[in-house]
Amino acid sequence: xxxxxxxxxxxxxxxxxxxxxxxxxxxxxxxxxxxxxxxxxxxxxxxxxxxxxxxxxxxxxxxxxxxxxxxxxxxxxxxxxxxxxxxxxxxxxxxxxxxxxxxxxxxxxxxxxxxxxxxxxxxxxxxxxxxxxxxxxxxxxxxxxxxxxxxxxxxxxxxxxxxxxxxxxxxxxxxxxxxxxxxxxxxxxxxxxxxxxxxxxxxxxxxxxxxxxxxxxxxxxxxxxxxxxxxxxxxxxxxxxxxxxxxxxxxxxxxxxxxxxxxxxxxxxxxxxxxxxxxxxxxxxxxxxxxxxxxxxxxxxxxxxxxxxxxxxxxxxxxxxxxxxxxxxxxxxxxxxxxxxxxxxxxxxxxxxxxxxxxxxxxxxxxxxxxxxxxxxxxxxxxxxxxxxxxxxxxxxxxxxxxxxxxxxxxxxxxxxxxxxxxxxxxxxxxxxxxxxxxxxxxxxxxxxxxxxxxxxxxxxxxxxxxxxxxxxxxxxxxxxxxxxxxxxxxxxxxxxxxxxxxxxxxxxxxxxxxxxxxxxxxxx
Length: 525
Prior knowledge:
single chain; seven-stranded antiparallel β-sheet; 22 helices
């Protein structure tokens, strides 16, 4: 499946950092297990040559030795220092799959993924019958390449891919090693709280200070992409900085998922959230390189990271430190907490709007409406009285989504698009006639409770699962609260938790996705 995308996304892939020849050689010795000799190879759809037998001991040793040389290139290209040794490990297919399963089964991450899945299905971003976890495991297994583990400071390589073809991948992954030296990625990448919000103070703390891990991941992966491109172009005497058209072409080519069968079948949410850090991150870094040079694009972006998808998509606002709109959560716990348990709260950012609008209204509407977005927040709660089996489904979840827009026409367009998609989510959907009703105030009854949509001025309020009387009380509180809350200053260390980007943060790292490797190889050739 080939789709022309409005989002400036470059497929799953990463690119890496460059090096400094003055760095001392690393001292970690290679210790691969001697495998049988390679007998033949096949070409995967990603463009990588895959051996039917694992690489030999000599091949592994040569690959391990190349780590130090590539690390020096990364450090020089990025102006980031590589001050600590990098461990290296060779993994089999079985080991990679076990590692992915283990990461996806870790207690905290697994619970957060399950919660995220229910909320995403309630909003209609995933089909109700979609089995998320097994699909993710298949998708990540298809796309996995070498990857860097900040917990152990180890670069993991694959024993079934030809050594020469892993070197450009190493450029990407070793970029993460020099980033790690500067900011300690494991902590830097998850800057906010992961607990469940229990009161209005927690609500606004999550909105203002919750994790911006995917926005930050867009920096780290975008930088790694930039270095990866430079490494691929080094023999041609070119770089991304002096050949920006290469980055533009690379993002276009990477949007073709035809060479990745599982990715091509993935829901739009998974495609976009998985690809965003690589493609949009590369675009963000490219603009920083052109505006401020290497130090602004690398050390500068790590020291003052963006906090939202808006800043990644609009690097000029990040550079100008333009405030990003953040709405205020009212105190609704007194209304809800008797019958509803707080479940999730966060920001519906510009990326979320693009995905929702494209999914519900088509690609033609996605770009213009996303640009008109001017802030959005959501809240989800779970019905305390729901049966245990129902609590495993979106039917137990009630949601509130309040958004503001730069003009009334855009606000009305979004309301209509959202209302038009309700039949996809609910059985027994029925529009309720209202006295003196109009197209800006819509009420529906569904198998999961009432749905209320309301436009006032440029603010759209949407309640799903709460009865009409409760929805009206909630709406009044949301509208009254706006205008009193602070704006988030771009780069002010106040990251946001965004619906789709928060989901992205729950996925285990896979290094350079193969779809991007293929696009880069085709471009350079």
